[in-house]
Amino acid sequence: MSVVAIIPARYGSKRLPGKPLKEIAGKPLIYWVWVSSKKSKLTDKVIIATDDIRIEEECSKFGAECYSTPSDLKSGSDRAMYAYRNLKLDNDVILSIQCDEPLITGDLLDSLIASFLQSNADVGTIVKRINDYEDLFNPSVVKVVLRTDFSAMYFSRSTIPYLRDVKKYEWLNYGVFWKHIGIYIYKKAALEKFIELPQSSLELAEKLEQLRLLQAGLRIHCVETDLELMGVDTSEDLARVRSMISKTNP
What domain range is 87 assigned to? Predict the structure, then answer.
């Protein structure tokens, strides 16, 4: 099966406007996502799908292939499919990589692709164990509850599962908690179904696009990573990621 990687990049983030172009170690945030995506050995090409000419112009400086999309698309996955269809691509599998995950690696993407292709799931994504209380109770860190076969049962900004009769400062001693990393891999038919569905009640409540999939009955296969990853949603996140990247790219 052939795989295309698409990086949806929207300029108008509510919490951090212009997020894809925020500077990290002398480069825009989206550069770090793109350069890591290009290191994947299992993708045929990498495309940035954006709604803003400023992102296109900046990405052209480092040689990225860009495609212009409308600004009113509902989610990153909707944007990825818009680019896929209008570019008349014929790949069997679409890898949608959020533009605010600058710490990903090519090897991580290849692990996700390989595991997904061996599964019978409709969609795949990445999860990581939560090991600190800041992440555990932070609504910007999306939590996921897993079945024994590592498929997703539910995603939430709330802390799930809730440990009754255990003090909150002891929760990590008694339970396993998982956080979601914003990368999705779709069979073509699954992404086509996703964009035809109306936004679901849970998706609108939690502002999590993957809940549209779960409510429609699609199976999401999860792959564990132990990499130290961090999405950029706020100015505080940006400061932390700048510090992390500057240590490895002085």
Answer: 3-248
Quote the number of domains for the chain: 1
> Can you give the pTM of this predicted structure?
0.93
CATH of the domain at 87: 3.90.550.10
Locate 167 and state its tokens.
Answer: 């003090």
Q: pLDDT tens-digit profile of 90-141?
A: 999 999 999 999 999 999 999 999 999 999 999 999 999 999 999 999 998 9
